[in-house]
Amino acid sequence: MTVVSERKPALVFADGSAKSAERAVPAEVAIAMSYRGSSHAVMMATPADLVDFAYGFSLTEGIVGSAVEILEVDVVPFDKGIDLQITLAGDRSDALAARRRSMAGPVGCGLCGLESIDAAMRSVLRVGDGFTLRPQDVNAAVEALFPQQPLFAETRAVHGTGFYRPGEGMLVVREDVGRHNALDKLVGALVRQGIEGATGAVVVTSRLSVEMIQKTATAGATVLIAISNPTALAIDTAEAAGITLIATARGDGFSVYTHAHRVKVRDNG
Length: 269
What we know:
32% of the residues lie in helices and 31% in strands. The chain is an alpha/beta fold. Keywords: Cytoplasm, Molybdenum cofactor biosynthesis. It is found in: Cytoplasm.
């Protein structure tokens, strides 16, 4: 069984005294995403829900266009980390290999840097109409997330993401030391469980950067609720994607930055 937390000794200072104690901390492991036997990216992540992670990363990074293009995921542990060996359908595997070849070039060539910027600032997918929710649904979504974060309860050191559907509650929750990783795991879990992103809201415990908006759009989710604040670019990207961006939601109120028409004060509109 993969260890997701450890107990480490610490000298604890409190109330004017110091004492030796143990504290629970989350595990952090190098996770490689490998396609066709070659490592594509390595992330430092919590070693849990790794198949979800492989699916979500492959989708949100545009390596595949749909989950059916992923044929198999093998989780291979090594002394210094874990290799996720992801087998793609033939056409998608060939396209990824061609993209790698096109990116190859001498150091400082300029072209590679420009392509990297283009990738970071890629056009965001536009989501559909989705659903509407009430202010009390927003507060309920935030309140429902924390009780389903066992690793956070143990360590107070990981991010959480969840998928909330009004009337049904929190359907899926994923945790990770990295906020992007946690969202990738959630996206992977949704597609593997056949849950349509447009039917509920993504809820996150972290601040919102542009990558978080891009990943949410990949899942087709129309509402993104965050406990912290967004960046300016995240707001602009959510506006372009058609996503309702709700921030500083902490159970006692919130701010809606984009597409506020989905938040209905009264049921009759």
